[in-house]
Amino acid sequence: MVFDGEKMMELSEALKKFLSNGASLSFSGMGGEQCVAHAYEIVRLGVRDLTLIGDSPCEAADVLIGAGLVKKVEVGWIGYAVAGIAYNYRRAVEQGIPNKIEVEEYTNYTMGLRFLAGAMDIPFIPTKSLLGSDIPNYNSRIKIVDDPYTNEPVALLPAAKPDLAIVHVHKADPEGNAQMLGFSSNAENIARAAKHTIVTCEEIVSTEEIRRRPNLTLIPQYCVDAVVELPFACHPWNMPYYYAYDIPFHMKQMDAFRTREGFLKWLEDWCLTCEDHFEYCKKVGWDRLNKLARIERKFMKIE
Amino acid sequence: MENKKYAKDYTLSELMVAATSREIKDRETIFAGVGLPCLGALTALLTHAPRAIIATEGGCIGPLPKRLLLGIGDNACAENAICTTSLWRLFSDLQRGYFDVGMLGGAQVDKYGNLNSTAIFGKGSYLNPAVRLPGSGGANDIASSAKRTIIMIPLDKRKFVEKVDYITSPGHIDGKMREKLKLRGGGPSAVITDKCIFRFDKNTKEMYLDALFPGVTIDDVLSNMSFEIKVSPNLRTVEPPTEEEVQIIRTLDPKGIYTGDGLSKLTFEDYIQMLEDSYRNIGKLYIIKLGRQAFERCSK
């Protein structure tokens, strides 16, 4: 059931409405386009016992795990790629700091297929990935069976149907028609697989603008419960056409995350003492953010 | 092949990139990881394989970026691409058999090219590992379905092990299993290290030493592995990078982000300047190597 009311709201309001303790949650983003502001807001609200379901929810997963808000992950990958490894994830698995988490592992493609199955409302989906690896040996929800038509081995994956999807896009109108430029990871299926969907966007546009290029709409309004305008929501990660990756910032962050104390201090400085995402942006510096936006436009312009 | 001008001054990383580049043929489709593999693929595109297509996991196909790719979901992956789509769509193209080459790395590899990027168990187990690694990401999918894979991994006793703790990405599994399971892809074809190149025997599917980097001995290789392998009767020496290859690699990665330790020293101002310079210099490289038509496509 899509929420019946005004959809445009603040992020904190949307999260209070649609995210409760013990819920399962999915974020859009792959490599870049990461949901950072969203994870910080969940930390501010202190919603806990979360199950994260995602392909590679790098930053959101690592931050929420470090904040002690996660009990289980169903994922393909957790790390910061070029910037570094996920220290909080490592501490949780290796030492149970701040708490032990349950890890149910898949791959990027098979998580994508689980969301596709969820979005189609079918119970499972077969794939030719995973066979011959140890992934199914340590994950009893993956079933290796013989295809009844060809007798060839296939791996079956359970559909993913999170309680809440948080999807960050380039443009959305106030009803939630959401458009992305560049690659879209699994956003369209995450939005459709979930019971509720919050769309956040770099900019709110008119429905007329959406109608001008309907083929860019990944997620139509009927999948969407809440719409939030949230510019620079991926910082320090990148958003194609809008702003470049702030990798020097990420390197500083990784240095801090190396130790538990460093991470907690970072969370204090960049999340808990910032009232909201706009305070975070102010602290990063609008000048710095504008430089990242300006350099991006040099490489990729929207026509 | 004649009249090649080999570079006199090059680094080990640059040699690895050049060796990777030579594994790629024109018009091939490549599922590339970030870092040295991607530099290898781009170098191929700018030398002998101008019509090769590079794809990255987030859903980007055929980019011609005028900046270094800083991740599989960096904006550069979408820059001047022929197609940007979704992750599951791109990986479905992989499973469907459209990708010739996949590039993989890992923390451990065995003689069949099985890779571990999930966890080093140490004295513990999967649930209590000594080192928790990021996991498969797309690696298992690429290993399963790319027609062939190229593995890049530094030669090290702890990395080249008799048995990997956990098979994240299947290589030739036990030598026979891959065919039984009817995996879509053919498995690993080459392992490129910082000392040598290994390939796999057609029949046994076991790794053998195929070529040494200049100045490296067979013993240097064998003493850095935890399992025994055969040495090719036609053992070759890897050609050094050419002057052209080195110039391309240094234009693509001017600060040594992947070929050196440039990232740790990179300030915000240096970074913005690097992007400004790359815009101009990589743009120029495209005109020279790919012709004006390609450049105009990139610079509108």
Written account of the structure:
The complex is a heterodimer of chains A (303) and B (300). By secondary structure, chain A is of the alpha/beta class. Chain A has two domains: 11-106 and 161-299, Glutaconate Coenzyme A-transferase, CATH 3.40.1080.10; 124-158, no CATH class. Helix content of chain A is 36%, strand content 19%. In chain A, strands 1, 2, 3, 4, 8, 9, 10, 11 and 12 form a nine-stranded mixed beta sheet that branches. Chain A has a three-stranded antiparallel beta sheet with strand order 5-7-6, covered by helices on one side. In chain A, helix 1 (11-18) crosses helix 2 and helix 3 packs across helix 4 (87-95). Chain A is globular, with a radius of gyration of 19 Å. Chain A starts with 10 loop residues before the first helix and ends with a helix. Chain B is α/β, with parallel strands linked by helices and 300 residues long. Chain B has a single domain (12-299), classed as 3-Layer(aba) Sandwich (Glutaconate Coenzyme A-transferase), CATH 3.40.1080. Chain B has helices spanning 12-21, 36-45, 87-96, 139-145, 177-180, 218-222, 243-252, 262-265, 268-290, 292-299, and strands at 29-31, 53-56, 60-61, 83-84, 101-104, 108-109, 115-116, 119-120, 131-132, 148-152, 188-192, 196-200, 207-212, 230-237. Chain B starts with 11 loop residues before the first helix and ends with a helix. The mean pLDDT of chain B is 95. The interface between A and B is large, with 70 and 73 residues.
